[in-house]
Design a protein that fits this description.
Elements: H1 5-9, E1 12-14, E2 21-23, E3 34-37, E4 40-43, H2 44-53, E5 61-64, E6 82-85, H3 88-93, E7 97-98, E8 104-105, E9 111-112, E10 117-121, E11 127-131, H4 132-153
Antiparallel strand pairs: 1-2, 3-4, 5-6, 7-8, 8-9, 10-11
Bound molecules: zinc ion (2 copies).
Amino acid sequence: MELTAKLFQTYIKVLPQTSCWEYLGAKDSQGYGRIFIGGKECKAQRVAYQMEYGPLPSKARLLHLLPVGQCIGRACCNPGHLKIFEPLSHIAESQTRKTTLGVKICKNGHRITGDNIVTETRPDGRIQERCRICCQEKWRTRKAALKEMKMATA
Ligand SMILES: [Zn+2]
Ligand SMILES: [Zn+2]
């Protein structure tokens, strides 16, 4: 059976005071609504959010944005009470991929491993591993640009 917005509504009770959509179906141990779609278990709040706003990146998590008292929290599926939360590390990670062996690959397809690693400390104190080939390429073009500038101003 395909899940439609109409069917989804039958799992929901709208609370008049907070306008929360309380999920009435199964919940996981943490209190989040669970729903089966095509045999796959999904978070009810994600389903509700995607019905309203379209597909979510798989790494994006949803948080309830209202304080306690204005929203019932985990059991609430009102898309208007949810916001996307993407941790900084996820944003950094999205620039690199990992092979099945756990070796990181930069966006240009170089393996970030062994000698091809430069570490960089990010403003938030995290250490990030970058591709040396690509960094050198960047430094080279930057240097060349500087040289050109100097020549132009000389
Ligand atoms: Zn709510
Ligand atoms: Zn690279």
